[in-house]
């Protein structure tokens, strides 16, 4: 029980910055922040959905500055990977954090993705 006159404080649960560029007809999406349930994941979903709906299924996802990913984020990645493959493309992961790699491995999904440490190699893998 809280004492009278105290208030709950709602903390902002982080943001996700999304930058998109095109390299040799491949979309490179750089994320900065946590990939977890909430408005950040909704924006990420909208970004990927828009790319796939506009015929751009070749995607490199730079996760270097994504410290963690939750189950909602993993589900979103797998859904969009499936859609990209159905459209003749794929999603390649670039520089995922150790935590992200361990999480994907733990749930048995790491083998679905090609993982790269170099952007040039990730983009070239689509050629």
Any overview of this molecule?
- This protein has helices at residues 39-53, 71-86, 98-106, 119-124; strands spanning 16-23, 26-33, 58-65, 90-94, 114-116.
- It has 127 residues and is an alpha/beta fold.
- It has one domain (16-124): STAS domain (Transcription Regulator spoIIAA), CATH 3.30.750.24.
- Strand 1 and strand 2 form a beta hairpin.
Largest sheet: 5 strands, mixed
Question: Under the CATH scheme, which class?
Answer: Alpha Beta
Amount of helix: 25-40%
Instruction: Give the total of beta strands.
Output: 5
Q: How far is the first residue's CA from the last residue's CA?
A: 62 Å
Which architecture per CATH? 2-Layer Sandwich
Outline: globular
Q: Residue-averaged pLDDT, rounded?
A: 87
Q: SSE string, helix = H, strand = E? A: EEHEHEHEH
Trace the largest sheet across and list its strands: 1-2-3-4-5
Uncertain runs with pLDDT below 50, 5 residues or more?
1-13
Number of domains: 1
Question: Using only CA atoms, what is the Rg?
Answer: 17 Å
Secondary structural class: alpha/beta
CATH topology: Transcription Regulator spoIIAA
How many DSSP H or I helices?
Answer: 4
What do we call the CATH homologous superfamily? Answer: STAS domain
Beta percentage is 25-35%
């Amino acid at each position: 029980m809280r004492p009278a006159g105290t208030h709950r404080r709602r903390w902002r649960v982080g943001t996700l910055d999304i930058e998109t560029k095109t390299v040799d007809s491949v979309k490179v999406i750089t994320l900065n922040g946590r990939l977890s349930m909430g408005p950040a994941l909704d924006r990420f979903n909208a970004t990927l959905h828009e790319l796939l709906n506009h015929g751009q299924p070749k995607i490199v996802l730079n996760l270097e500055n994504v410290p963690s990913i939750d189950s909602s984020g993993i589900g979103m990645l797998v859904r969009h990977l499936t859609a990209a493959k159905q459209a003749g493309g794929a999603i390649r992961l670039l520089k995922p954090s150790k935590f992200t790699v361990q999480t994907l491995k733990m749930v048995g999904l790491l083998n679905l993705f090609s993982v790269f440490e170099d952007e040039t190699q990730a983009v070239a893998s689509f050629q």
